[in-house]
Amino acid sequence: MTIEGDSICYVQKFRQCQIHGDFIWVPPNELNIMGSPWSFASWGMDVIGPRACRIEWTPFILVEIDNFTIWVDVFTYKALTKQIVAYFVCNNIVCPFGIPESIITDNATNLNSDRIREIFQKFKIVHRNSTTYRLKKNEPVEAANKNIKGILL
């Protein structure tokens, strides 16, 4: 060991040096908003309804997105009922990725039914609705919807 190594070990072990030592000063930076603390903890869901799609055999598109990784999954359905949405949440979110902390949806009736509320209460998932005056809450899903519509139309 060298004198420098010995003094570093001594300072690291000495409590008074740890308490009264200088802080590391870092210049201030702008804080970034973090939507989700870890992968698959928060999901966004939205429906691209029948008028937005020109494909006759798939009039409804259900979009899910992980808010941490911005990973998008798209599923097509001929009809999108509350039973299909409940089945979708169980088999495409909860089973493969575990129970999320929250799911953000818009105010569509098939995404806000009693059946969906029962599923969310059963798995203790927080259900958040994005409102028309606060679209930032579900912004990743809306951006994905815009891209999907651009591809399909």
UniProtKB/TrEMBL annotation:
Protein name per the record: Uncharacterized protein LOC104242390
Domain of life where this protein originates: Eukaryota
Stored Gene3D superfamilies: Ribonuclease H-like superfamily/Ribonuclease H
Transmembrane domains' residue ranges: none
GO MF, one annotated term: nucleic acid binding
Organism: Nicotiana sylvestris (Wood tobacco)
InterPro entries assigned: Integrase_cat-core, Retrovirus_Pol_polyprotein, RNaseH-like_sf, RNaseH_sf
GO biological process terms, semicolon-separated: DNA integration
Gene name for this UniProt entry: LOC104242390
Endpoints of the signal sequence: none
Annotated ranges, domain Integrase catalytic: 33-153
Biological classification of the source: Eukaryota, Viridiplantae, Streptophyta, Embryophyta, Tracheophyta
